[in-house]
Amino acid sequence: MKSYYFLPLMIFILLISNSLSGIVCADLPKIQILATGGTIAGTAQNQSELTLYKSGDLSVDALIASLPEMSTYAHVVGEQIYNIDSIEMTPDIWLTLANRVNKLLESPDIDGVVITHGTDTLEETAYFLNLVVKSEKPVVITGSIRPATALSADGPLNLLNAVILAASRDAAGKGVLILLNGQINGARDTTKTNTEMVETFKSADFGLLGYMDNEVPRFYRESLKLHTTATNFDVTSRTTLPKVDIVMLYPGVDRTAIDAFVANKTEGIIIASLGNGGYSKSIKAALQDVIDRGIPVVISSRTGTGIITSKDPEFISSDSLNPQKARILLMVALTQTHNLDEIEKIFRIC
Ligand SMILES: NC(=O)CC[C@H](N)C(=O)O
């Protein structure tokens, strides 16, 4: 071959091989969907039925088959880990889920995980995973308010957005993310605020982290609290979590619930206090008895927002965590320590 043909020929071969490899093995992220059930997999008798339906009815394969659009953004694999209404969620299931997420994310073959979940207890599962998942890879939890059979069902777009978010590099290292209604929220600060409206997950104290702009996640902030790889929690060898209970305060409340929880071997009590750490003298005496048994007491608030700055020093402040989130953190903290000062410190940083 004449030497002056050689360079153009090589350039031509390189260009062809590059574009062919781009077509043949499009380098899409690999996302595993762990389906746990919920309304996103729920079915009703007719399209106009929005509230009477069966949660956790459709399989993950059916959800994936109904959303071929996902394959534009990721190689999606489904796994039916449970198929329940999230009112049946338990700490044992959290442990199974955490271990499965950690195992998946250890694999170089998986770039991110999406969890489908009923919305009633989604915030608790999200915060638990936020504390115990040991990976920087994206973990996105989603659900829906309307069943899959409903007119204007919100599940399909939520699931598509969750897959896009989990496939995005921007979602890495931000802790577990809650994605519904085009809004990206952080697991620690977000709670279900409305019983049946699609804009229900909100962080009233600190705001959302970002929005989905069609197929582009746009982030504006992230939490300063420790999560995932930055925490020291390790639940891999656990089969149960410490038992922690919540007591709601109200005018005239007596110590019946507190004493019953202690008799039932509670390992920690969360108080949904009045305003900023308020409790009556008789409740204070009951809580003092709890502390004297070495059982930690964490003071949260029934108001839904704000931090606890006012409480007796022997009790622990939940900081800005609502009662159900404070319960998760105390359960996880108790897997590591029973020292009250150390638990107090955990509540400052997580
Ligand atoms: N919209 C929902 O997902 C709530 C309904 C159902 N109870 C659940 O949590 O699974």
Automatic annotation (TrEMBL):
Q: Which InterPro entries match?
A: AsnASE_II, Asp/glu_Ase-like_sf, Asparaginase/glutaminase-like, Asparaginase/glutaminase_AS1, Asparaginase/glutaminase_AS2, Asparaginase_C, L-asparaginase_C, L-asparaginase_N
Task: Outline the extent of the Asparaginase/glutaminase C-terminal domain.
Answer: 243-347
Q: Give the record's keywords alphabetically.
A: Hydrolase
Superkingdom, according to UniProt? Archaea
Q: Which Gene Ontology terms describe the biological processes this protein takes part in?
A: asparagine metabolic process
Q: Which family is this sequence assigned to?
A: Belongs to the asparaginase 1 family.
Please state what the protein is called.
L-asparaginase
Q: What is the protein's species of origin?
A: Methanospirillum purgamenti
